[in-house]
Design goal:
Blueprint: E1 5-16, E2 19-30, E3 34-38, H1 45-53, E4 60-65, E5 68-69, E6 80-83, H2 95-105, H3 110-123, H4 139-151, E7 157-161, H5 169-186, E8 189-194, H6 197-203, E9 206-211, E10 214-219, H7 221-226, H8 231-236, E11 241-249, E12 252-255, E13 258-261, E14 271-277, E15 282-285, E16 292-301, E17 306-312, E18 315-321, E19 330-335, E20 341-344
Parallel strand pairs: 3-8, 3-9, 6-7, 7-8
Antiparallel strand pairs: 1-2, 1-4, 4-5, 9-10, 11-12, 11-14, 12-13, 14-20, 15-19, 16-17, 16-19, 17-18
The structure holds adenosine-5'-triphosphate.
EC number: 7.6.2.11
Catalytic activity: ATP + H2O + polyamine-[polyamine-binding protein]Side 1 = ADP + phosphate + polyamineSide 2 + [polyamine-binding protein]Side 1
GO molecular function: ABC-type putrescine transporter activity; ATP binding; ATP hydrolysis activity
Amino acid sequence: MGDNIIISLKDIVVEYDGERVLEGLNLDIHDKEFVTFLGPSGCGKTTTLRIIGGFIEPLKGDVYFEGKRINSLPPYKRQVNTVFQRYALFPHLNVFENVAFGLRLKKMSEKVIKERVQEMLALVNLTGFEKRSVHQLSGGQQQRVAIARALVNHPKVLLLDEPLGALDLKLRKEMQLELKRIQQSLGITFIYVTHDQEEALTMSDTVVVMKDGDIQQIGTPIDIYNEPRNAFVADFIGESNIIDGVMHKDFLVEFAGRDFVCVDKGFDPDERIDVVVRPEDIKVVPPIQGHLSGIVESIIFKGVHYEMIVRACGYNWMIHSTIAEQPGDTIGMVINPEDIHIMKKMEEA
Ligand SMILES: Nc1ncnc2c1ncn2[C@@H]1O[C@H](COP(=O)(O)OP(=O)(O)OP(=O)(O)O)[C@@H](O)[C@H]1O
């Protein structure tokens, strides 16, 4: 990832039919970065992508590309290309001609077209498929053609709007790794939209978590997972136990009816906060040895671990454990200070 900012969004406001969809959004995207917009349906991810692609203009705010204001620059004049969820390939053209399309519009020589198309088909592992009709391709192969077609003009930024959404899970996982490889080998910026948190964590240098037209947190996948800024992010990224708590003083928090040492500070004394504990961070021990004790309500085998729901101190806790307890068993729960994440209450965050 480079240090240079390639795209900058400043105080972007978008309305559809008088409804606010983006609420003064600010974002810098770096050269060579793989950045993902992640959030629930309707939070404004695609709208932000459309602003960058030039398909819509903001009502207020500015869009910069390499330092130049480009608010009104039409899409075809931007060094940006888009891959959509629906492949939008030309059904009457073969693979070669689909990829060559943009180059033919630019009236490039036959020799250059051939070279560039071959180079792109090699990049997406489709060498040898030149003459195939797009009907003779699988969903994954069609999406590779769409990616080759979007990259053939050598854009500086590729926008990808849920490009793997129509593929089955196994193929989607393969394509995630492929996309990351393609982005790294080209060394260009990818801006990716998804509502799938695992996809975002797998591929991105930076994840932008969005909710209701606003950015909740920007960070590396590790930051976002380990240090979610609020309970929304914690809940959206992975699974979480979110418990009401009160901060007594630095490094001392009360929740679930007892005091815990934690590693967080900087909250007001007696401030009400959300305490977030990941299911894998609760250690199951004999009842007498636990910080808390609870009764197993249900247990499901998940392959790598068991997922248990445990009733303790008025809450249902999700716990991942490698030991198969039985429903009705009493267990002890241990939570280490560094695994207790303190967050401002959502409405105040
Ligand atoms: N062309 C449009 N006209 C009117 N409202 C729109 C239009 N496009 C999007 N919206 C609305 O704007 C809001 C944000 O939509 P957007 O497509 O940006 O969200 P998203 O996060 O990409 O959602 P999804 O994951 O479902 O694609 C939604 O409430 C949506 O219904």
